C-alpha cells in the first residue's frame, strides 16, 4: 500500500469546503481592493530563493525541497510566494506603463518546506498572499493589513490579534543588528541551541525565540525603536494612524522582527488567540520589502505584502465553527424515474436542469422508486421530480417539494420557461411571507 508522503494531506468534504471558501473570499475581497491574481510556477531556480529569501534563513538553510533536474539545473519547489511574484514582475516587465500602478497582485497556491510535521505545520501547505509594488505610502501598508482583516472577517473569524513593528531602513536595521550582536556576544553560551546558530547569521531572530531562557536573556537588549531615524518613526506612526482611521486594533510589539531577510520598515503578524487553538499561533505575516525587487535584478521598487497559511486558517475556521453557510452543498432537485423509457427522459431532464443552474442528481443503480425517494430525502433535495408511465404518456413531469409537501405538474416542453417559477413557489415557505404581510398590516 502506497501512502501519501509525510507532511502532506488529502482534502475532501469539510476540509475541501473550507479551502474553497477561503479561496472564494480571497478572490472576492481582493477584487474590491483592485488586486489581480497571478499564478507562477511551483518550481523555480534554487538561486531565486537563496537570493530572494536569504541564505541565512531557516527556509533556505534547512527547509528547501531542492534537486537537480534531468538537465542538471538546480531547482527548488517554492517555499513561499513573494520571491516568485517579484521574479515574474521583473521578467515580464510588469512595471511598464501599460500595467496598473501601483501594481497589486494576489496569489493562491501550494508551498513546500521540509519541516517536522505537526498540527498546522506541513511539508506541502498552501498560502494566499498579496503584494503591492512601486509605491511607498503608509496608506498602502495600512490597506494591505486592512485587506487581510477583511478576508478574515468575511470568513467569520473575529478574534484575531495584529502585532506590528517597524524595522526602519536597511542601514538603521544594520546598526541595530550590530548593537544586538554586541549585546548577545557575552551571553552566547547561555542561549538556546537554535539561537546560538541564529545569532551570527540572523541575530534579530533571537528576539522572537520561543525559548523562555532566550526571552529572559534578551529582556534588557537594546531596543529597535532607539535605532530608527526620525523619518522611519514618522512613517511607522503614519501607518498606525491610518489603521486607527479604519478602526483596526493592533499591538505594537517591539520584539517582532520576522524571519526573512528582505523586510524593512513595517512588519506585522496576525495571530489567533483562540483558546481552542492553544498558544498564540500566527496565521498571516507580512511587511515591507523595498529592496527586494532591485536585489533580484529589477528596478528600484517599493514593495509590501503578506502571506497567510490556509491550513491554519481552515483549522481555525473549523474550531470556531465559522461561517456555516460557506459549507453549503445543497441539492435542488432529485429526479426519480420509473422504467426504461423514463430513464432516458430523466437523463435528459437532469442535464437540462443543470444547464439552468440547478444542482441536480439522480439514481444510477436502477433502484426501486421507494429507494430513489429515500435517497432524495437523505440528500435533502428541495424538490423531487418524478417521471413514470403517466408522465411520459402525458408529456409532463410531476414535482414535489419535500419540505413543504406542495406538488405541481409541468408540461415537459415548458420546463425551460416555467421551472424557475414553480421551483420558487414550491420551495419558499409561505408562512414566512404571510407573517411579513400580517405584520405590515398593523
Ligand atoms: P513559523 O514561525 O510558524 O514557522 P514562518 O515565519 O515560517 O512561520 P511565513 O514564512 O511568514 O511563516 O509564512 C506565513 C504563514 O504561512 C505562516 O504564518 C503560517 O500560517 C503559514 N505557514 C508557514 N509555514 C507553514 C507550514 N510548514 N505549514 C503550514 N503553514 C505554514
Ligand atoms: Mg517557519
Give structural notes.
This protein is α+β, with helices and mostly antiparallel strands and 442 residues long. It folds into two domains: 13-169 and 229-325, BirA Bifunctional Protein, domain 2 (2-Layer Sandwich); 333-441, Rossmann fold (3-Layer(aba) Sandwich), CATH 3.40.50. 41% of the residues lie in helices and 20% in strands. The chain contains 17 helices and 16 strands. It has an eight-stranded mixed β-sheet. The chain has a five-stranded mixed β-sheet with strand order 13-12-14-15-16, sandwiched between helices. Helix 1 crosses helix 12 (310-319). The protein starts with 12 loop residues before the first helix and ends with a helix. The relative contact order is 0.11. Adenosine-5'-triphosphate binds next to strand 6, strand 10, strand 11 and helix 12.
Amino acid at each position: 500500500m502506497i501512502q501519501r508522503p509525510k507532511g502532506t494531506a488529502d482534502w475532501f468534504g469539510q476540509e475541501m469546503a473550507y479551502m474553497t471558501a477561503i479561496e472564494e473570499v480571497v478572490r472576492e475581497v481582493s477584487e474590491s481592493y483592485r488586486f489581480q491574481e497571478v499564478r507562477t510556477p511551483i518550481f523555480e531556480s534554487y538561486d531565486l530563493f537563496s537570493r530572494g529569501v536569504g541564505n541565512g534563513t531557516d527556509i533556505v538553510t534547512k527547509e528547501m525541497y531542492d534537486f537537480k533536474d534531468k538537465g542538471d539545473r538546480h531547482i527548488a519547489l517554492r517555499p513561499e510566494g513573494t520571491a516568485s511574484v517579484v521574479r515574474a514582475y521583473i521578467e515580464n516587465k510588469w512595471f511598464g506603463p501599460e500595467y496598473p500602478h501601483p501594481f497589486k497582485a494576489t496569489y493562491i497556491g501550494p508551498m513546500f518546506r521540509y519541516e517536522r510535521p505537526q498540527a498546522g505545520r506541513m511539508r506541502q501547505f498552501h498560502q494566499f498572499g498579496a503584494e503591492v509594488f512601486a509605491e511607498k505610502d503608509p496608506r498602502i501598508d495600512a490597506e494591505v493589513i486592512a485587506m487581510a482583516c477583511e478576508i478574515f472577517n468575511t470568513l467569520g473569524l473575529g478574534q484575531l490579534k495584529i502585532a506590528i513593528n517597524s524595522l526602519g531602513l536597511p542601514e538603521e536595521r544594520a546598526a541595530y543588528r550590530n548593537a544586538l550582536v554586541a549585546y548577545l556576544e557575552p551571553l552566547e553560551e547561555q542561549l538556546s541551541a537554535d539561537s546560538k546558530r541564529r545569532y551570527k547569521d540572523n541575530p534579530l531572530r533571537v528576539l522572537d525565540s520561543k525559548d523562555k531562557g532566550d526571552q529572559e536573556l534578551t529582556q534588557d537588549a537594546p531596543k529597535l525603536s532607539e535605532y530608527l531615524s526620525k523619518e522611519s518613526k514618522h512613517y511607522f506612526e503614519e501607518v498606525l494612524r491610518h489603521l486607527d482611521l479604519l478602526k483596526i486594533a493592533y499591538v505594537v510589539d517591539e520584539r517582532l522582527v520576522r524571519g526573512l531577510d528582505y523586510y524593512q520598515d513595517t512588519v506585522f503578524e496576525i495571530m489567533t488567540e483562540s483558546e481552542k487553538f492553544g498558544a498564540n499561533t500566527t496565521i498571516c505575516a507580512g511587511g515591507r520589502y523595498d529592496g527586494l525587487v532591485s536585489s533580484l535584478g529589477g528596478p528600484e521598487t517599493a514593495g509590501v505584502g503578506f502571506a497567510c497559511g490556509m491550513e491554519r486558517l481552515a483549522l481555525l475556521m473549523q474550531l470556531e465553527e465559522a461561517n456555516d453557510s460557506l459549507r453549503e452543498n445543497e441539492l435542488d432537485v432529485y429526479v426519480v424515474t420509473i422504467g426504461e423509457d423514463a430513464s432516458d427522459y430523466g437523463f435528459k431532464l437532469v442535464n437540462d436542469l443543470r444547464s439552468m443552474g440547478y444542482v441536480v442528481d439522480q439514481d444510477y443503480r436502477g433502484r426501486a422508486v421507494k429507494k430513489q425517494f429515500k435517497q432524495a430525502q437523505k440528500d435533502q433535495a428541495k424538490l423531487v421530480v418524478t417521471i413514470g408511465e403517466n408522465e411520459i404518456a402525458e408529456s409532463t413531469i410531476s414535482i414535489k417539494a419535500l419540505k413543504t409537501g406542495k406538488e405541481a405538474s409541468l408540461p415537459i416542453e415548458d420546463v425551460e420557461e416555467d421551472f424557475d417559477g414553480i421551483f420558487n413557489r414550491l420551495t419558499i415557505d409561505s408562512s414566512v411571507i404571510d407573517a411579513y404581510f400580517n405584520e405590515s398590516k398593523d
